[in-house]
Design a protein that fits this description.
By secondary structure, the chain is α+β, with helices and mostly antiparallel strands. 31% of the residues lie in helices and 25% in strands. The protein has one helix and two strands. Helix 1 links the parallel strand 1 and strand 2. The longest helix has 15 residues.
């Protein structure tokens, strides 16, 4: 398995629906990145 400890992944969600399908998918991708050893950031840009 490759070493991804020096890699970062950014997930950005601009969908106004909290907990919507897009946010769920981005969360799953970031979880996979974390499990592979990558650092990650998740940016929630929800307008109120």
């Amino acid at each position: 398995m490759a070493n991804f400890s020096n890699r970062q992944v950014l997930g950005s969600v601009g969908n106004p629906r909290l907990g919507g399908n897009t946010e769920i998918l981005v969360d799953e991708v970031l979880l996979g990145a974390e499990n592979a050893g990558c650092g990650h950031n998740h940016d929630h840009d929800h307008e109120h």
